[in-house]
Amino acid sequence: MKQHICTHINGEATEFLCDASDTLLEVLRDTLQLTGTKEGCGSGDCGACSVMLNDRLVCSCLVLAVEAEQGRIETVEGLASGDVLHPLQQAFLDHAALQCGICTPGLLVAAKALLDRNPSPTETEVRFWIAGNLCRCTGYDKIVRAVLAAAETMRQARAGVTS
């Protein structure tokens, strides 16, 4: 029997039907067509499916969709504001911090979670925070540089500094 779930995804009230065994990843991609969240491993080891659920970074392949009842979900689709990229997305482009794209959405969500908590992370803190997100193409130096650059851009924006 399908269960009726009411939640908020990227700030919008959303309802869906799911089986009790459906993962949040399956519902996001297959039911709601939010395909930015990627399936890498299906076992929570790669971080490609990272989303925010109630202000916690989670692997959506390990969360049952029914657990999102009355919750708040943020996916990579919620980063951009219309046609304006989030500073993290722009920094990933500027620093060539992506290649195949499988890990990129999870890395962006994880990096945003870090910057929401710590707007001035050190390189070590960035590396620690994204350690649960595996990238097999780029290595991590460009990714770390992109996160640090985005952090600087975001701090300047908050301070009203224009470049």
β content, as a range? 15-25%
* Beta-strand segment tally: 5
Order of helix and strand elements from N to C terminus: EEHEEEHHHH
Q: Give the N-to-C terminal Cα separation.
A: 55 Å
Which sequence of strands runs across the widest sheet?
A: 2-1-5-3-4
Radius of gyration: 16 Å
What ranges have pLDDT less than 50 throughout 5 or more consecutive residues?
Answer: none
Helix tally?
5
Can you give the mean pLDDT? 96
Sheet of most strands: 5 strands, mixed
By secondary-structure content and strand pairing, the structural class works out as alpha+beta
The percent of residues in helical segments reads 25-40%
Q: In one word, what is the shape?
A: globular
Q: What do these coordinates show?
A:
The structure is a single chain. The chain has helices at 24-31, 87-94, 104-117, 123-129, 141-159; strands at 3-9, 12-18, 50-53, 56-59, 72-74. It is α+β, with helices and mostly antiparallel strands. A 5-stranded mixed beta sheet has the order 2-1-5-3-4, sandwiched between helices. The model has no long low-confidence stretch (mean pLDDT 96).
Quick description:
This protein is α+β, with helices and mostly antiparallel strands. The protein has 5 helices and 5 strands; from the N terminus they run E-E-H-E-E-E-H-H-H-H. The model has no long low-confidence stretch (mean pLDDT 96).
Task: For this entry, give a set of tags.
single chain; 163 residues; alpha+beta; 5-stranded mixed beta sheet; 5 strands; globular
